[in-house]
């Protein structure tokens, strides 16, 4: 930092006692949006200033210093404007600047403690700061640490430089530290998040420096249970949001450690320590940090922590509590939160029941799913899924490199790229594909935040493409119209499969199911009429035999004579069974249409109820803001009142939009589930031939 700016900052006296002749307040500078905000209100992730470049930050800081200095000097009594006294003060500032320059590259007490903690917990063989590495490069263990700091261009840069010096000479030192701030692009943030959450054995990243740009929307809990607040924000909510980056679900560690520094000789730290304790007390009593408390504390600390006001601030923070009206607001907030939580728990229970019903109805089975994918791979001329080493205790399989086959479709490159780790900004596509192999695939959730494997499900891009040949049409040039299976049964059986598809507006597929008719197969030369469909018991027995035949590995193939015999009979078998299939498909279509109608009505009703609940909540808030305007805005400054009035207008506009939503959205949902067309087509024949015949 240039020394003239340092002098200006020291002259300003923010946080200190200041010169006895200087004014005790900065008047206009203390108004929100006025001068001094960069010092008392550092920009957070929601502030456009967090997106400023270093040059813009420095320009704004210089302008603030100049204006505050001019305001302060204009308020000086004439007796203090004596040239000799001013010269003496400037000389004192020069000496302070020289001391700052002398020590600016050395760690302070907080940084020294942090470096020692890293040595003890992340890299035990690392020598103390300033001492060179002797012998082999110190190795790092698998722990990680997340460090939050307020200032992007000041403290963050200072800390990054010192930590880089401290770990210099260790194993892969240049890859151990990363930074996320307001200028980090979205792609870069996702890459850093992926690296920080990847297994430590696979990625050298161990230390992540972050400003408040990373306090929301990014999760780092997979392999990190230690967090440091290098400096604390003056807002309890932001402290809670920072801690939430690692103290959240899918955190595998039983204990999460969130550290902050307290220097006894610093008056500011005594205030911040009380702030942290107060935050913990409120959370323990209320279950969460109430917004009214959050706002109250932030308002008290908005203009900074001045040494002469420390005792007053400590008393005020210790006495922060809820009055009758605030208690009612907190009760309303918590009641609404409890209602939402209860509603979510009920929804989770309904989803669990729906999942069980869906699995029973579709007959989805992991083994059958995996075998179907392997069959699709074999149709492409590739080997099936191969078991590989278990990952996180879960069985895993390796997908064959389809793109490397001779005459392979080039588009498989892009499809299989979804099985690789995400590409970094520095990698070309060619380098990425060469360096990032296809990851193993799994079929069950391990309950961990990890990118070591890819969880294949029905909607995954690779799965969708492999199953497309089975779903897009009943058969293609690679698929046969008939299938012959050997079964552990004594009766030859035949199944005719058909596909029923229902379509809504825009040819949206609303429903699809297989319908079938089963019968005992009789040689055409011995038939006295068409084949007769089985009843319920016979059909259930046939389906059980079919499932068993599909699961077992065939030890032998049907004889060529049997194959020719059934092939010659296939056309007649279809002619016999198709008239029996169509009525079943029509009946299934009618049942599906009714269920779709009921689903549309239910979703329309749920949507209408949700809109009405939101409208009531907004209407209540608007009416309360109008009737209690004076009381609610009593402690507001000009900017807060303006924002409150903007909120009122937004609530009024939202109420008007709710009326339009109620008139159109439920009907739009009903229309979505209206069946506009249906299609019934035979898919193929399945013969179940006795193994002993």
UniProtKB/TrEMBL annotation:
Q: Which residues form the Helicase C-terminal domain?
A: 132-297
Map out region (Disordered) in residue numbers.
1-50
Hydrolase among keywords: yes
InterPro entries named in the record: Helicase_C-like, P-loop_NTPase, SNF2/RAD54-like_C
In alphabetical order, the GO MF annotations are: hydrolase activity
Q: Which Gene3D superfamilies match?
A: P-loop containing nucleotide triphosphate hydrolases
> Which CDD domains does the record cross-reference, listed alphabetically?
SF2_C_SNF
Keywords associated with the record: Coiled coil, Hydrolase
UniProt feature coiled coil, ranges = 590-642
**Top-rank taxon:** Bacteria
Which Pfam families does this UniProt record tie to the protein? Answer: Helicase_C
Q: What is this protein called?
A: Helicase C-terminal domain-containing protein
């Amino acid at each position: 930092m240039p020394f003239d700016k340092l002098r200006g900052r020291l002259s300003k006296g923010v946080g200190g006692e200041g010169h006895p002749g200087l004014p005790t307040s900065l008047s206009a500078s203390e108004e929100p949006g006025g001068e001094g905000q960069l010092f008392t209100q550092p920009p957070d992730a929601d502030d456009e200033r967090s997106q400023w470049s270093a040059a813009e930050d420095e320009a704004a800081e210089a302008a603030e210093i100049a204006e505050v200095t001019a305001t302060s000097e204009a308020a000086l009594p004439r007796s203090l404007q004596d040239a000799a006294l001013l010269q003496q003060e400037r000389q004192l500032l020069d000496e302070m600047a020289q001391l700052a320059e002398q020590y600016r590259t050395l760690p302070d007490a907080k940084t020294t403690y942090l470096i020692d903690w890293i040595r003890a917990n992340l890299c035990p063989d690392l020598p103390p700061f300033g001492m060179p590495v002797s012998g082999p490069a110190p190795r790092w263990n698998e722990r990680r640490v997340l460090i939050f700091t307020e200032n992007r261009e000041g403290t963050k840069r200072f800390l990054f430089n010192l930590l880089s010096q401290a770990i210099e000479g260790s194993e892969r030192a240049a890859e151990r530290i990363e930074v996320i701030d307001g200028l980090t692009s979205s792609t870069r943030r996702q890459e850093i998040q992926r690296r920080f959450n990847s297994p430590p054995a696979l990625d050298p990243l161990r230390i992540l420096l972050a400003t408040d740009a990373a306090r929301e929307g990014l999760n780092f809990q997979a392999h990190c249970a230690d967090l440091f607040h290098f400096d604390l924000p003056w807002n309890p909510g932001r402290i809670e949001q920072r801690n939430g980056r690692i103290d959240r679900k899918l955190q595998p560690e039983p204990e999460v450690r969130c550290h902050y520094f307290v220097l006894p000789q610093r008056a500011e730290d005594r205030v911040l320590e009380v702030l942290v304790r107060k935050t913990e007390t409120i959370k323990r009593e209320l279950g969460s940090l109430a917004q009214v408390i959050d706002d109250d504390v932030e308002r008290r600390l908005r203009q900074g922590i001045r040494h002469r006001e420390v005792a007053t601030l400590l008393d005020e923070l210790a006495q922060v509590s809820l009055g009758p009206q605030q208690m009612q607001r907190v009760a309303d907030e918590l009641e609404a939160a409890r209602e939402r939580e209860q509603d979510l728990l009920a929804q989770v229970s309904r989803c669990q029941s729906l999942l069980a019903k869906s699995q029973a109805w579709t007959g989805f089975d992991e083994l059958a799913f995996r075998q179907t994918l392997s069959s699709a791979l074999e149709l492409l001329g590739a080997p099936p899924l191969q078991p590989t080493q278990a990952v996180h205790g879960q069985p895993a399989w390796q997908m064959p490199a389809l793109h490397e086959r001779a005459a392979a479709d080039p588009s498989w490159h892009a499809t299989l790229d979804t099985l690789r780790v995400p590409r970094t900004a520095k990698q070309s596509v060619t380098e990425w594909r060469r360096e990032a192999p296809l990851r193993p695939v799994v079929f069950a959730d391990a309950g961990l935040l990890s990118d070591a494997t890819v969880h294949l499900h029905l909607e995954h891009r690779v799965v969708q493409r492999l199953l497309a040949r089975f779903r897009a049409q009943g058969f293609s040039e690679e698929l046969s119209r008939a299938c012959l299976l050997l079964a552990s049964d004594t009766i030859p059986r035949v199944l005719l499969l058909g596909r029923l598809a229902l379509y809504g507006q825009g040819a949206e597929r609303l429903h699809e199911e297989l319908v079938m008719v089963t019968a005992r197969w009789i040689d055409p030369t011995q038939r006295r009429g068409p084949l007769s469909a089985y009843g319920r018991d016979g059909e259930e027995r046939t389906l059980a035999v079919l499932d068993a035949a599909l699961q077992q590995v065939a030890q032998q193939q049907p004889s060529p004579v049997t194959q020719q015999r059934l092939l010659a009979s296939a056309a007649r078998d279809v002619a016999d069974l198709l008239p029996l299939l169509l009525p079943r498909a029509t009946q299934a279509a009618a049942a599906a249409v009714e269920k779709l109608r009921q689903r549309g009505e239910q979703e329309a009703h749920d949507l209408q109820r949700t809109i009405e609940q939101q409208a009531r909540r907004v209407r209540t808030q608007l009416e309360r803001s109008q009737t209690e305007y004076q009381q609610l805005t009593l402690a507001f400054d000009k900017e807060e009142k303006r924002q409150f009035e903007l909120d009122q207008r937004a609530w009024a506009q939202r109420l008007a939009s709710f009326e339009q939503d109620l008139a159109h959205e439920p009907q739009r949902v009903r229309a979505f589930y209206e069946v506009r067309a249906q299609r019934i087509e035979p898919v193929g024949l399945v013969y179940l031939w006795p193994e002993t015949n």
